[in-house]
């Protein structure tokens, strides 16, 4: 069964992560995604390695692979007038355009929203930048780690000052880019629905900074309600206790007690039912207020058993907890295997490329995994012929102009 976006064409002028993450989501949902790349160079992330997947004589970086499956790669030099003309023709035949150039960066080539709107008024044009199209920072470059810092995430991530390893930390993956990619996808889907009702396209202005502040979630609301700065708590939670990593007899584990019933059951499992009956600890607000008295008691109990012993015990008492899995253990986990998270895609040379599945599971339509991340320019001729109707003779003329690399 075809994916829900079958019949939708996306012109992808983005690179690195936020934009490609959004367009990969659209490709997974069945859209045809045409990724335009610089001749001979391509998306910057093609060289962001090691590690590299050896796809014949054209190794592909693991970084590029994570955000570009399901796409067609077309090389066009749109710094040249001939290239600009090709991009406009492709935009005219597309439903969505995604780009992440600096504010005004595409205007010099006549590829900004107003210019493209003139040839395709119904186009949904999504611009992703560090700080958005307006405001005092709009001309600044924006990168994930910088926005994690400016947007407040690093102020609440890491061990407290004075603790071993204390100080602000960035998250282990580029979450600001990823969240921006996901919000961009949501925005595009909303604009598609609007277009279906009205026939109108529109410009979507996405900013990493806006997204980062938006996903501070409970931490930003804690500040706005209390006017108190949230503190870095390492793996602990500002509003739920006990909810953090503890050292076991042979390593570490996560205990994630989310309510009073779970806490009472944990105390029974830990052989300390009197702790659950203590007036200081009976309710979550009390446990938060008396965190410093409770956590040493929990830590002492958990240190007596191995992680595996605790996981079995917690499961028997219906208390959330788990090991700190390595990547190897993640992909060997029976739940991950049962859900089909690990993918095997056939590369252009016939070898098998690893990938990670989209987490969306539809009952009536299917997520599409028909195409591995493409080699640079692999689909240029086919796209120009199939989408624009360029003949073989005209294709030779275009290639002679060096606009295709």
From TrEMBL:
Keywords (A to Z) from UniProt = Transferase
- Which Pfam families does the record cross-reference, listed alphabetically? CoA_transf_3
Q: Which InterPro entries match?
A: CoA-transferase_III_domain (IPR050483), CoA-Trfase_fam_III (IPR003673), CoA-Trfase_III_dom3_sf (IPR044855), CoA-Trfase_III_dom_1_sf (IPR023606)
**Its domain of life?**
Bacteria
Show the GO MF annotations. CoA-transferase activity
The signal peptide stretch is none
- Descriptive protein name: Crotonobetainyl-CoA:carnitine CoA-transferase CaiB
Q: Source species, please?
A: Kordiimonas lacus
Q: Upper taxonomic classification of the species?
A: Bacteria, Pseudomonadati, Pseudomonadota, Alphaproteobacteria, Kordiimonadales
């Amino acid at each position: 069964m075809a994916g829900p976006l079958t019949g939708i064409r996306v012109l992808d002028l983005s690179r690195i992560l936020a934009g490609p993450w959004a367009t990969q989501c659209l490709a997974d949902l069945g859209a045809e995604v045409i990724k335009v790349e610089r001749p001979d160079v391509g998306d910057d992330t093609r060289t962001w390695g090691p590690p590299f997947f050896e796809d014949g004589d054209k190794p592909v970086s693991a970084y590029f692979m994570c955000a570009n499956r399901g796409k067609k790669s077309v090389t066009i030099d749109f710094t040249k007038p001939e290239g600009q003309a090709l991009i406009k023709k492709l935009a005219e035949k597309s439903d969505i355009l995604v780009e992440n150039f600096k504010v005004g960066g595409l205007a010099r080539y006549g590829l900004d929203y107003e210019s493209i709107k003139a040839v395709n008024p119904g186009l949904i044009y999504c611009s992703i930048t560090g700080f958005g199209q307006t405001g005092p920072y709009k001309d600044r470059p924006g990168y994930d780690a910088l926005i994690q810092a400016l947007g407040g995430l690093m102020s609440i991530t890491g061990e407290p000052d004075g603790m071993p390893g204390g100080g602000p930390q960035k998250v282990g993956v580029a979450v600001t880019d990823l969240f921006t990619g996901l919000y961009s996808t949501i925005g595009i889907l909303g604009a598609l629905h609007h277009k279906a009702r009205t026939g109108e396209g529109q410009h979507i202005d996405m900013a990493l900074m806006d997204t980062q502040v938006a996903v501070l979630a409970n931490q930003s609301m804690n500040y706005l309600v209390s006017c108190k700065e949230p503190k870095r708590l390492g793996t602990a939670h500002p509003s739920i206790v006990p909810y953090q990593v503890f050292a076991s007899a042979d390593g570490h584990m996560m205990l994630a007690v989310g309510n009073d019933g779970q806490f009472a059951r944990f105390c029974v499992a830990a052989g300390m039912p009197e702790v659950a009956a203590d007036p200081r600890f009976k309710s979550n607000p009390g446990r938060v207020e008396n965190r410093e008295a409770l956590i040493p008691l929990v830590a002492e109990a958990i240190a007596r058993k191995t992680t595996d012993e605790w996981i079995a015990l917690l499961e028997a008492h219906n208390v959330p907890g788990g090991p700190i899995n390595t990547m190897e253990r993640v992909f060997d986990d029976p739940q991950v295997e049962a859900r089909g998270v690990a993918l095997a895609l056939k590369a252009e040379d016939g070898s098998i490329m690893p990938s990670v599945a989209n987490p969306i599971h539809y009952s009536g339509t299917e997520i599409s995994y028909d195409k591995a991340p493409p080699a640079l320019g692999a689909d240029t001729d086919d796209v120009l012929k199939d989408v624009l109707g360029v003949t073989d003779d005209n294709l030779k003329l275009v290639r002679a102009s060096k606009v295709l690399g």
